[in-house]
Design goal:
Layout (H helix, E strand, L loop, with lengths): L9 H11 L2 E8 L3 H5 L4 H11 L4 E5 L3 H14 L1 E7 L1 E2 L3 E3 L4 E3 H8 L7 E5 L6 H8 L6 E5 L5 H18 L6 H15 L3 E4 L1 H18 L2 H18 L3
Parallel strand pairs: 1-2, 1-3, 3-7, 7-8
Antiparallel strand pairs: 4-5, 5-6, 8-9
């Protein structure tokens, strides 16, 4: 009887080994405004409580400053958890803790060392965009970034994210596959009217190339010809022609 052997490329084997070193559990970091604290809008805590009810190991930390965020990220590293969920305020160019505003550029410098073979989830208004991807995917092996493209209401966020994690871990408690994430996000966006977006390095690079091509399409022909000549001159200088 012949057997079919499944083969893996060297890169796939390395990826699988790195994933084995992490635990398929959720680590939640939350930081709200004083008004949200007063209104008891602790969405991250709600998600943690629901996952505890289903028996899924989850860690929850609340921070108020950038320094505390940096400190808790060390705990995330020590936990070896694979999934990081950040619940905080945000916009198209930055996120906020209770007391600090952090630009995407600075946030990228802070978070990148902790995202090797991890998935990053955001519950923050309007953060899932090209600027965030650019800040994180430069020199990062983050598996994916998921978050809202538009503003997100607290009630929708709490229900949508709780549903996402409950259904995803119910489907497979040990792994999240890109295609399953994208299908579930489509369903939840349809139900709750959210704008949760999936990004990984491939989709980010595709979006970046589309932006570059769009910029080129706006240039005048004479400008394009000038850029082409400059590129040729640079190549000739590099190979000493």
């Amino acid at each position: 009887m012949s057997k079919t052997l499944k083969t893996y490329s060297h890169s796939n084997v390395k990826t699988r080994r790195r994933l084995i070193l992490t635990k398929p559990n959720l680590f939640i970091i939350e930081s709200l405004s004083y008004d949200d604290e007063k209104g008891n809008k602790f969405e991250g805590k709600i998600i943690a409580d629901i996952l505890h009810l289903s028996g899924k190991e989850t860690l929850y930390y609340y921070v108020r400053t950038e320094q505390e965020l940096r400190s808790v990220l060390e705990k995330f590293r020590e936990s070896r958890f694979r999934y990081l969920h950040l619940s905080c305020h945000g916009n198209t160019s930055s996120i906020s803790t209770t007391l600090n505003n952090i630009s995407f550029t600075k946030f990228g410098d802070i978070i990148r060392p902790y995202l090797n073979m991890r998935r990053l989830f955001f519950s923050s208004c309007s953060v899932a965009n090209y600027s965030l991807g650019n800040a994180i995917y430069s020199h990062s092996s983050c598996l994916s970034i998921i978050g809202p493209e538009k503003d997100l209401n607290f009630n929708d966020a709490a229900i949508a994210w709780s549903s996402f994690y409950h259904l995803m871990f119910k489907l497979n408690p040990n792994s999240m596959k890109n295609e399953n994430i994208q299908v579930l996000l489509f369903i939840l966006n349809s139900i709750y009217g959210t704008s949760l977006k999936f990004m990984n390095k491939t989709t980010f690079e595709t979006e970046r190339n589309e932006k570059i091509m769009k910029l080129f399409s706006l240039l005048k022909p004479e400008t394009l010809e000038k850029l082409k000549l400059q590129a040729i001159n640079m190549l000739e200088n590099q190979i000493n022609i």
